Predict the structure.
Amino acid sequence: MLANLRSLIVGFTAGVLVTAILVQQLLISQLWDPIIETSQDPLGSSTAFPDTLLHQMASLRNPLRVAQGALLRGAYFKNVHSAQSSVQQRTRSSLLKPATSSSSTHPFSTSTSRMASSKSYLEAAKERRTIYQLNKTSPIPDSKIVEIIETAANVVPSAFNTQSTRLVTLLNKEHEVFWDQVHDVLKPIVPEDQWATTKGRLDGFKAGKGTVLFFTDPEPMDTLKKKIPAYAHHYGDWAEQSNAMHQYFLWVALEAEGLGANLQHYNPLVDQKTQQHYNIPLEWKLRAQLVFGGKAGEAGPKETLPVEKKVFVHGAE
Ligand SMILES: Cc1cc2nc3c(=O)[nH]c(=O)nc-3n(C[C@H](O)[C@H](O)[C@H](O)COP(=O)(O)O)c2cc1C
Ligand SMILES: *[C@@H]1O[C@H](CO)[C@@H](O)[C@H](O)[C@H]1NC(C)=O
């Protein structure tokens, strides 16, 4: 009797929590409407939410993932070693090529030959913006896009070199399949009066050329927790930080090649459908989607806080 009551209460509480999170997700997808964002909320809530929300989601999902990860731990060390040696070989053969063939005025060029469109790292970083109007015309071939994504996976740093980020790249028809799936997941849960806005946004993403899905594989972090428990409470944050570095690296690298992009968060609503469809291990956690394509429009206006509020220098000569 008491046990029944307890499971009822636990079930109810979990249900309320999940519903609250789903509703919050939907509100957020509306919040990020470019019109709202640029006219009313240039700096505000867009940066405030992800932290708290992601933590809520993480605390709901982690116990299961840790348990699943434990089953796989045995295989990890072998994988890390074989992965690392192949990374080293590749570093020697292909990744060093751009550095030797491009001049120091193009340190961020991802091309093996100097291309007119390639920009310096700072130039590309300054020009990178959120571009919502994308199309399917890419200044570079698919093979080059894939090469840039492989480079991200090999050169972006991670804590203890864990390399926990997984990049699933969807191009052309597969990019459209993904956004159709997001459409199918959202259609039944978005309130009718908001559907037109949501549909407009989804159509905009689908009009692009490709999407990179950023996942975190919890397995390397679980292994590290066992091996070096002293930092255990940091590993989650560090995996997030390294995942975000991959996001930024690619956003700027695509800009350097003349592609536009925007960053989306339809996780966790679409996770299950996507992971099943692309046969992605269910324990990987989807963190973000970078949509990219030809620039078919301009970025909206953006306010920049006075730099003195953000940068503090001591000892410059
Ligand atoms: C961590 C992070 C999460 C973001 N999430 C979204 C998002 O879910 N949807 C969206 O349209 N833009 C998203 N953005 C884009 C920001 O709103 C945008 O980068 C910011 O307003 C600055 O504009 P800019 O990218 O044009 O420089 C996100 C950006 C960051 C860094
Ligand atoms: C994409 O947009 C660019 C810039 O407006 C344009 O030159 C190109 O033709 C467009 N491609 C398609 C397929 O519409």
Observations:
- The radius of gyration is 21 Å.
